[in-house]
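Here is one chain, start to finish.
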Amino acid sequence: MAAVEITIKAFMIDHIRAMRNMYDIEVIVNTEDVNFLKPFGLDVAVIRVDIERKISLFRDLWALIYLFHVFRENKYDIVHSITPKAGLLSMLAGFFAGIPVRIHTFTGQVWTTRKGFARWSLKTADKLIAFCATQILVDSHSQRDFLIKEKVVSALKSHVIANGSICGVDTKRFSPNPEARMNLRKKLGVSESDVVFLFLGRLNWDKGLLDLAMAFSVVCGVHNNVRLVLVGPDEENLRGRILEFCKSCSERVYFEDYTDRPEQYMAAADVFCLPSYREGFGIVVIEAASVGVPAIGSRIYGITDAIEDGITGFFHEPGNADELAVIMKRFIDNPILIKKMGEAARVRAQQLFSKEIVTSAMLDYYEKLTCHA
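Its structure:
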């Protein structure tokens, strides 16, 4: 179960494809198209449930009651939820409906950057999810350690699949592509001698994009052969503020609202940047690594699993734009370092985080649960 179909498409397709040979699977999600899995070759039943992304007491209560009846009627052996709202509703409904195995996957905590009542209420919701679940999956080892420390989950109840990440990376799709690199850089007006720093994801404050903009403006004052490419929806209208920080070099900053070919932007990049304040697991870092691109990331849980410091990239303290700028300069001054770390990053992504490894580990996890049921 997930709140929106994009979550299923992004993270669960390979798992569903592998598990359907052994289990009867139904997908419960808020969708306008109950046939959205058929283009993926998956003839799986889809049950639509109206879940609001934001808190809506009346609709949330209706969804909870509806789920309770669905669970009681279908007598599922396992309910597995992803995303916070879907987790809260399905774990509560599953608890009261007597579903024997209730699994929730944590993929990051919104409350880590909140304060006061907002932090308390969101954290309490996560604790309630963990209480109602019989099993907790966490998509990185460092995030699990954090959740145990914060007393949200217990060590006995929580697990990480393989080496982390919810679904792994498609190392064939995300691979070095000289043709895509040449074509996209030509489209952006970027020469092969330019060093391209890439961010790919939602443009919001939590991603540390203002820190990246400040660091890039510092770098631009010293180097002319640098470019910054930002790909993703501008959720908090940050574009204007980013350009304000980079006003002396705004012509070297490129924005792209959406792409269904992230691997092409990664192929065109030299260094991937993820200066976030919170992450569950830096899957985009691993995708870039699989393409052969080293990374700069903030030293926070989630990202520390995705980068091997000094081998596949470097860490900086979250919010420290000066330190970030120093690392960016280090890469600019040393093209051989970019190549060396990029090669190491690709090897690590293949050996630890391929989708085959993660899906196989998920199958093993389910098999152990059903054997003990």
